[in-house]
Design brief:
Oligomer: single chain
Distance between the termini: 38 Å
Helix content: 10-25%
Number of helices: 3
Structural class: alpha+beta
Largest sheet: 4 strands, mixed
Order of helices and strands: HEEEHEEEH
Strand order of the largest sheet: 3-6-5-4
Shape: globular
Strand content: 15-25%
Length: about 140
Amino acid sequence: MIVGAHSIIYSRKPEADRALLRDVLELPHIDVGDGWLIFGLPPSEVAVHPSEKNDVHEFYLMCKDVGAFVKAMEQHGVKCSKIQGMAWGLLTKVTLPGGGTLGVYQPRHARPTQPGVGSTGRNRRPQARSRRRRAKTGRR
């Protein structure tokens, strides 16, 4: 049913921020006309958190090694905040040329299987899968 997600970063300097995504982060992209770039992203996930208000959304990129990411950004002259240890991961914020920030983190949490990559799109708890296997085979 769902084939992807489209996120939007609003910027006072969109051309400069697009250049960072294209040239520094090296995200694949297409030009849909007049320099308007749309970027491809790696597999992603969405979580729903409790809130007193609706329509409050956040956007983060994830990486395997946030320390290495910060060092790579420094080589490009891109400023990152000090890495913060959070319960869910190690977080830095990249300062975009347009003045905004973009969170990038190294997750500590489990990641869901991506639909279409050898999965049905449904994740079962490993414990439940083990119980089913034992029931079928009679083994513990």
